[in-house]
Amino acid sequence: MTLSLEPTPSERRKGKLSAIHLQWALRTLRDTGLVILERALPEDWIAAIRAACDRDVKSYLKDPALRKQFLVDAKGHIGMPPKQQSPYMDALAIANPFATQILDQMMGPEYFCTYYNTNITWPGSAVQALHRDTHLLFPELNVALPPHTVVVNIMLVDFTLANGATEVWPGSHLIVDRPEDQGVPLEERARALPSLRTVAPAGSLVVRDLRMWHRGMPNQTDLIRTMLAIVYFRRFMHRSEVMTIPQRVWDTLPEKARQLFRHNRVGRPGKPS
Ligand SMILES: O=C(O)CCC(=O)C(=O)O
After folding, report:
1. Which residue lies with its CA nearest to atom 8 of ligand 1?
2. Residue nearest to atom 6 of ligand 1 (CA)
3. In the CATH hierarchy, which fold is given to the domain comprising 4-272?
4. Which residue of 37, 43, 183, 254 has the lowest C-beta tally within 10 Å?
């Protein structure tokens, strides 16, 4: 089973998948819940974000409460909100042309983003509980609905079995939960189903339906394993929590990024503009 495709040099130059590759990516995402575009981002760009992220997470974890929250309670799986400034607030990350080419087809008109985080797997991390990142919209229905929430992950390092490439269950985004499944751990249900690990090189871009069953895995290396996680919602999913994007950053964003982030606050915290 392959869930990966490497954009050709010409696609990379144009920032656009060919019609055939786009159809393949959309079908793979629809059927399996996930698609990986290998080495979709430039190496030097990835290196700059990785350096910032490694530096920022070390400083983030100086707070004893956050150390306990992530290294003890979450067993080494850290979600550090990236600073809303360069290099994180870059159109290549938040309105990536390959990702939006897929999302434009998948998510209906006027989808948007109000959630930007990182998934950092610390050396020595343990296996996470298997989970979905979102609830089913209408759990009472016995049929799966089209995707309503999708995450774009950007891998800042090579993802390997050793450093904790995520484990995913292809097709699980379409599994509906029946009342009698209440309380049955997903680990038990997953035993009947095949899984994969998202092994891919640094710079790869993953588009995943948030309903997909998955879990973070142990990092048995000495190096931090990091990916960016940017979540896009269908228009009707608009929620009240918003990010505050500094005006000076907003002013640098292209139209596509502004449109995607339009429901957030722009200006100083507490001072909408
Ligand atoms: O970091 C990963 O590989 C997955 C993390 C995850 O699924 C989570 O924290 O919800």
Report:
1. 216
2. 216
3. Jelly Rolls (2.60.120)
4. 183
Instruction: Tell how far the Cα of 227 is from the centroid of ligand 1, in angstroms.
Output: 9
Distance of CA 32 to the CA centre of its chain: 16
> SS3 for 204?
coil
* Cα 157 to averaged position of ligand 1 atoms, centre (Å): 15
Q: Which residues of 99-108 are buried (b: 16+ CB within 10 A; e: fewer)?
A: bbbbbeebbe
Q: pTM score, two decimals?
A: 0.91
What residues contact 165, with CB distance under 8 A and at least 6 apart?
Answer: 159, 197, 198, 199, 200, 217
Nearest alpha-carbon partner for 168 in 75, 34, 77: 34
Q: Nearest C-alpha to atom 5 of ligand 1 is from which residue?
A: 216
Residue 42 CA to ligand 1 center (angstroms) comes to 24
* Per-residue model confidence as pLDDT tens digits over 29-88: 999 999 999 999 999 999 999 999 999 999 999 999 999 999 999 999 999 999 999 999
